[in-house]
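Dear support,

I submitted the protein below through the web form. The confirmation email said the job was done, but the results page showed an empty box. After a refresh the structure appeared. I'm attaching both so you can tell me whether what I see now is the final result or a partial one.
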Amino acid sequence: MDTLVALGTGVAWLYSMSVNLWPQWFPMEARHLYYEASAMIIGLINLGHMLEARARQRSSKALEKLLDLTPPTARLVTDEGEKNVPLADVQPGMLLRLTTGDRVPVDGEITQGEAWLDEAMLTGEPIPQQKGEGDSVHAGTVVQDGSVLFRASAVGSHTTLSRIIRMVRQAQSSKPEIGQLADKISAVFVPVVVVIALISAAIWYFFGPAPQIVYTLVIATTVLIIACPCALGLATPMSIISGVGRAAEFGVLVRDADALQRASTLDTVVFDKTGTLTEGKPQVVAVKTFADVDEAQALRLAAALEQGSSHPLARAILDKAGDMQLPQVNGFRTLRGLGVSGEAEGHAVLLGNQALFK
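What the results page shows now:
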């Protein structure tokens, strides 16, 4: 593409310069200047490149959001105590601490404690996962509840998050089949167009009307410029860059440009991950009781207890309770990995998973 544009505008510019410098060589009717044509054509091409650069810039913001998922510091645990250190200073094998609300700085393995981690940015699973000794944690995930010690295993460009970012960048720079086909065609297309331009120029020079040199230049330049596949050369990379970047903003990772192109032909999609098709916001759909317990009363007690919990399901129960008047809770306790307990309106209330009631 650039070869054809350079040849066309270059010939027009050189001709105009020749007319300015040596006007005596040209008859009066052949003294035409084409500076504005060369400038306009190059300007339009640069406009296309500017639009492509803007698309790249918008896409890079999606990657910046992924990079922002890692904190700038980590809490290092040593024999002398705990201290915050820059993320760049963290090395594999270091012992780090995580508490509620922390974002995991590097990949590692838990050595002590239990916590609930929000891994939606990696797995798409909206419900935080319980992690304990021996379980892996990944950079960018968030501790919803709990406190753990973990040993760093992968840092910097070796973390799972970094690999995701690298994959998105590779996808943005890759070419789909249509782009690869265009490259193959251009290897033959450009020489053929140059030959056609020369033949056209020769025909107009020997058989065209006077002044022949003017018509020869205009025809040769026109063939070179018109044959330039600017739309294909700009539209293909822009669509890939914009599509991959936009998908990354919504948590969809595209492995390569060819996969993105093939996605347009899909007629069936099979999902094998719980929560993939949800909004990631759990809701209470029904309240069932036994032993003649009033459903509204059970919901009130459960919501009152969940006011002190940071578990994501607590928000769903509170939303279900709505504007109910909730009683005061005494003796609230968090039972790690099980649930919560407390006293309300003279009742001892337990709220948790099946393991709590075994």
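Response: this is the final, complete result; the empty box was a page-load delay. Residues 2-65+167-248 form one domain.
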